[in-house]
Each structure stands twice: as C-alpha cells, then as structure tokens.
Amino acid sequence: DLQRLHEAGCQTVFTPDNGLMYPRGRQDISIVMPPRSLSKVLCGASRPGHFVGVCTVLSKLLHMVAPEILVLGEKDYQQLRIVQQMVADLNLNVQVLPGPLQREADGLAYSSRNTFLSPAERQVAPLLAQTLFDLARRSTSAADIASLTTEGWERLEQAGFLPDYLELRDAQTLQALNVPQPDARWFAAARLGQTRLIDNVIVP
C-alpha cells in the first residue's frame, strides 16, 4: 500500500499503532454507536459489533487528522452509508465521497481478500459479481424478487459458495425491497473456501 501511495505522489501517510489509538487498551473506551437501521442488516447481522468498531476508530482518526475529504470505496457500501450518516449525525467537518467500485478484468471486485483464494477458487470467484449483474439486469418492474433471490442463491451454492446474504435493498436506507425501485442495489456476501467475499451492484 505504501509503495502504491508513493507511486501516486502521496507525500505523507499517517499510520498510528495501537498504543497511539488505544493508550488504555480497547476493553474500556468510549465508543461511537452506528445508526441502528443501517448497521443491523447485511454484514451487521452476521458480524455483531463490527460497525461499532468501525465508527469508533474512524471517528478517532477523523478527529486526529482533521481531513477535508474522506473517500470510501463503494465495495463496502454498507460501511460507506454508515459513515456518511455518522458524519452527518455528529456534525463532523468532513465531506464523505464514494470511491467507485473497482473490478478485475473478469468482474471480481478488487479486494485484499482475493489474495487468500486458491487458484481454483479464484476461477470460481467472479461468479459472485456475474450473479449480481444478472439479477440487477432482470430486476424490472414486473420481476419476482423472491424468485430471483432463490435462483441467485442456488446458483452460488451450486458453484461452491456458502452464501451469507443475497438481497435487494434501498441504496440510501438499506431497507429490504420486495419490488425494484430507483436507487436500488443488490447486495451479496458469501464464503468461498475460507474467504468471505462481498459485492454489490446497482439496478440500472
């Protein structure tokens, strides 16, 4: 990461260690609670407390660095929405901008976790994105979302994935949708071997 930042022209990187971030340890610190409606679904449902940690450490970093702009990638879309809401709720003086989701040539969303995939798993992994794009394309006003969800889930299972969730949700509120609407996204998380992959695709 540091090498890539250097190549991009970055001159300063703030890399605090645990001693600076948590001088009294992590067990008895003030925490920042994420908005419940955004944090209890999708990844939050299977990873209790995860977004409490995200909001707490990020709020500390924002206070320490005081940036004007914070860019968060759309691959972790739920995290992006939670942080956007946290910044608004706490009146933090920073603009949160979404970074477009980047993909490999075969469609797999860029992620450091991809390096943990075996060669055989790496060949299968793009099916997650392919399934989401297919569901998004077929999510017309007359679509049966429940049937599409079942079809997509079974497709992933047959390919060797262990799905965690596959859902159509409102891109702003993250509320589940039974019918397509403007600003809707398909969200998915699934394990392939020991690696947990997440992705999302907007409905055109």
UniProtKB/TrEMBL annotation:
What organism is this sequence from?
Answer: Acidithiobacillus ferrivorans
> InterPro entries from the entry?
Pantoate_ligase, Pantoate_ligase_C, Rossmann-like_a/b/a_fold
Gene Ontology biological-process entries: pantothenate biosynthetic process
Keywords of the record: ATP-binding, Ligase, Nucleotide-binding, Pantothenate biosynthesis
This enzyme catalyses:
(R)-pantoate + beta-alanine + ATP = (R)-pantothenate + AMP + diphosphate + H(+)
Q: Name one GO molecular function term.
A: pantoate-beta-alanine ligase activity
EC assignment: 6.3.2.1
Taxonomically, the superkingdom here is Bacteria
Q: Which pathway is recorded for this entry?
A: Cofactor biosynthesis; (R)-pantothenate biosynthesis; (R)-pantothenate from (R)-pantoate and beta-alanine: step 1/1
Q: What is this protein called?
A: pantoate--beta-alanine ligase (AMP-forming)
Similarity section = Belongs to the pantothenate synthetase family.
Cellular component aspect of the GO annotation: cytosol
